[in-house]
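// run 5 | inverse folding | seed 20
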């Protein structure tokens, strides 16, 4: 894992920077193996081009950092202390050179930047390290892929628990609770995002929430979920029918299924993200539902649910082996229905290697 830090140190040397100040907890998890959302507290990783890095964390997290096997220094602070003053002191104690900084400009707030410059007035935020870390995360290693396959296998179990929980008049929240209870009883510690369960017309909102909608016979039920395995995540969606399905529902489902399978079968190294999006979009548009496919085809995935890859119209990013992303077309007709089918895959020389294997053929749950 610490090869990633060595790669970052090489980049700092090339840029002529004195240090990198990393404050996105997802980036810290990727580089160190320690993951924790500090919420309002301060968590940072400071990397120098020549000397050892250190983690700066709330005092209540210090032992958790050490428990990961982190071999370098970790410094803590109490809530009553000024964390930025302490960070400044640790930086000055670690290196004689601390003027030129690389920071995550899309994460570091103006308030935090001003506090750091108060602690070290000589600090110049010269470079943006965000893209460098994104590029490092872009191609998954075999070890990362193995963890994502395990997360996908756990997601497959989650789908089955969700399908088994469906019952007339049961609410979305109750189904979600049953699903997560059984999964966590099985030993899956965490979901990668809040599980989404939507019934009937409620599923026409692709960024809706799990609520009090009750399941009725003839409804479609959409499950969007993911799990975490050793710091890596899954994200998949299945839509099933409850007790019966109308010709209208089946016809639209088949359009989404064709779009998903066509894109997943077509993806290969060398094509662009925009070309892949267009393949799925063309299927839905040709069927007359183009206006109801309202989002991109997919997004990057790895140690966080949404990483930098955007499978979106006109994106000229060239897809390469080792990239991991979702393929998730959908049709959402307000007041009627919402259908999405999603697999997250890693791209190989041969094409898509899916992390989840729950059938995508329309299931009717009795």
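// decoded
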């Amino acid at each position: 894992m610490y090869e990633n830090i060595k790669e970052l140190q090489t980049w700092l040397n090339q840029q002529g920077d004195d240090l990198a100040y990393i404050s996105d907890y997802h980036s810290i998890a990727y580089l160190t193996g320690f993951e924790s959302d500090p919420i309002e507290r301060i968590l940072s990783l400071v990397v120098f081009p020549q000397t050892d890095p250190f983690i700066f964390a709330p005092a209540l997290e210090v032992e958790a950092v050490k428990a990961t096997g982190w071999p370098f220094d970790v410094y803590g602070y109490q809530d009553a202390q000024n964390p930025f003053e302490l960070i400044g002191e640790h930086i000055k104690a670690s290196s004689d050179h601390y003027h030129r900084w690389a920071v995550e400009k899309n994460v570091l707030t103006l308030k935090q930047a001003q506090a750091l410059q108060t602690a070290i007035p000589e600090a110049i935020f010269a470079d943006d390290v965000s893209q460098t870390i994104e590029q490092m995360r872009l191609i998954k290693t075999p070890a990362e892929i193995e963890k994502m396959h395990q997360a996908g296998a756990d997601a497959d179990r989650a789908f089955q628990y969700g399908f088994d929980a469906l019952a007339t008049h049961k609410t979305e929240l109750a189904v979600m609770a049953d699903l997560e209870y059984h999964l966590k009883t099985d030993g899956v510690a965490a979901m990668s995002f809040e599980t989404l369960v939507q019934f009937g017309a409620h599923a026409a909102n692709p960024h809706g929430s799990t609520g009090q909608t009750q399941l009725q016979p003839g409804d479609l039920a959409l499950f969007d979920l993911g799990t975490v395995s050793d710091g890596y995540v899954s994200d998949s969606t299945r839509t099933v029918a409850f007790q019966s399905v109308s010709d209208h529902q089946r016809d639209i489902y088949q359009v989404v299924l064709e779009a998903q399978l066509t894109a997943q079968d077509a993806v290969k190294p060398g094509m662009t993200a925009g070309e892949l999006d267009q393949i799925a979009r063309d299927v839905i548009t040709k069927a007359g539902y183009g206006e109801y496919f309202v989002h991109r085809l997919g997004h990057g995935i790895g140690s966080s649910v949404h990483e930098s890859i955007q499978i979106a119209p006109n994106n000229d990013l060239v897809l390469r082996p080792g990239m991991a992303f979702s393929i998730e077309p959908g049709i959402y007709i307000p007041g009627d229905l919402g259908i999405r089918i999603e697999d997250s895959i890693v791209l190989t020389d041969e094409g898509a290697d899916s992390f989840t294997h729950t059938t995508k053929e329309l299931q009717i749950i009795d």
